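ARCHIVE CARD
Drawer: 12
Card no.: 0347
Subject: one protein chain, sequence and derived structure
Cross-reference: see card 0346
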Amino acid sequence: LLDLVKAFDRIPYALIVREAIALGYPLHILRLSIATYRLARVVRIRSVVSQTLHALRGITAGTGFATTEMRVILIRVMDRAISIHNMIKPTVFVDDITADMAGPSDQVVKHLGGFTGIVTDFFRTNGLELSCKKSVCTASTKSLGKRLSARWKRHWHQVSFTGEAVGWWAR
């Protein structure tokens, strides 16, 4: 499971625009969406209210187009990763990505490691942060879990390996 930290809040507008243009997404709708995200707002904590603020990035979760825009951001990177590592069966649910594969350990390390590397490099390149706490991997054996952990250290600053009752987790 790959999970982004504050996924909706941290999306750069340039990333949405770039991916929308590449996919032929209607830019007049995107312009309207971004304009609403940039509307003036205030932050209130109890009785303390901030000055008027304008968002410089981020899409508002729960708005009409937010999940579609998140999908627009992920389509091409997922297609690229699948085209190279076609043994992977990915599932995307809004901003959470799972990738499954069954096969010989060497192939799992190659394809699952490679698929995950492509996706995490895309996140990093575009200023998005992967959650080290919520992103986990289950492996069928301790040996496979350790090999996947070693592979992902290239892409994540922090990877740990722990044994759990349900299997071996790379976190």
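Annotation on reverse: Residues 164-171 have pLDDT under 50 and may be disordered. The chain has five helices and eight strands.
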